[in-house]
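ok so i was messing around last nite and threw this chain in just to see what happens. nothing serious, just curious
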Amino acid sequence: MSEEFLRLFAREKLATHKKHGLRRTLFATERSPGGKVQRNARELISFSCNDYLGLSQHPDVVEASRQATRQYGTGAGGSRLVLGNNPLYARLEATLARIKGTEDAVVFGSGYLTNVGAIPVLAGPEDLILMDELCHACLFTGTTIARSQVIKFAHKDTGNLARLLAEHRNSHRYCLVLTDGVFSMDGDRAPVADLLDLCERHDAWLMTDDAHGLGVVENGRGSNVIDGRAIPVPLQMGTLSKAVGAYGGYLCTNRDVADLMRNRARSFLYTTGLPPGTLAAAITALEMIESDVDLVSKPLNHASRFAEAVGLPAPQSPIVPIMLGDVNSTLQASKKLEEHGFLVIPIRPPTVPEGTSRLRCTFSAAHTDQDIARFAAAVTEVLETL
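result:
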C-alpha cells in the first residue's frame, strides 16, 4: 500500500508539471566534433552546449585523458583525504591558481559540490549572505545549508546592495556577498569591481561563480578581469565542465582558506576523488586556454556576429538569450528550429522566473562562420512565424 501511495504522489506531481508545460524528458544525445549532435536519429548543429571551446572533443585533451587512464586506472579509489588525491591534482590546482591570480585552488567533484560545500564553511547561522537575485541555483542551495540570514539584492544593482549592507551588515558576525560572474541564463556580466569595492568598505567577502566566464571572456581569464585588469576577488569559484570541457569544480583563494576547505567542506571530505583521466583532460585544456588567444576569442566573436544579424544587443559572453516570455511560444520556437537542423533547448520556469521563458543560445569555437549565418537566418524566419 505504501508503495502505491508513493507512485500516486509522483504521478500527481508530474501531472502538475505537464499541465504547465514544465515536464522534462531525457533524450539520448550523442555529441561529435564541430558542434554536431545526434538526437532522435537526426544530426543537428547544437547551439545549447556549454562546451564553449569544443575542448571535450579536442584530440590533445582526449589523448591526455587516455594516457592518464592507462597509467592510473579509471577511478580514484577513495576520497582525496584517504587515497584519492592523485598526483595530477597538484598540477591542476596550481594551474587554476595561476590563471586566476590566487595563492591556491581547491578542486571539488563538480561546480555544484563546490558551492554547496564552500558556502557553509564561510558562513553560518550568525552570519549574513547577500546575493544577486539571479544567482545560480547551487549558490542558493549552499546558503540553505549554511542557515545564514539570506537577502537577495536586485540584479546587478550595486545601489541596492549598498543600502542592504548599510542596514544589515553591523548586526552580523561575518558577511558573504555572492554573484555569478557571467549569469548563466542571461549571459550578462556582474559589475565585479564595484561589488568588490562595496565589500571592502563594509568588511564583507565577495565570492564569484565564474562557471561561464573562465575560458571565454577577457582572453580566457574569466570575469574577475575587466579590460585586462585583474580584480582581486578573494573567493573565485568555477567549474571544469564548461569551457574546460572536462568535469569538476574549483575554488581559487588564498592558502589559508584553501586549507580550511580541505578540512571543513563536507562535499570535499566525503566525496570520491575525480577520475585521473578527467584531471589530465582538465590540465591540458587549461594550458590551451592560457596559450591560445585565438581559440578563446571565438565564442564571443560568434555570439556578437549572430546578435548583430538578428538585431539583438551586443552580448557580453557567448550566451545570447532570445526572450519569448511564455512557455508555449518557447517550446514552439525550439521545435521549429530543430526542423531547420538546429538544437536550441527551451528554458522555462523554474530555471528562469515566470514570464521569462527563452531560447538560450550558446556559441562555441567549434562553430563555423557558415553555421552562424545559417542559424541567424533560421532564427529570423522562426521568430517571424510566432
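not much to say yet. The two ends are 48 Å apart (CA to CA).
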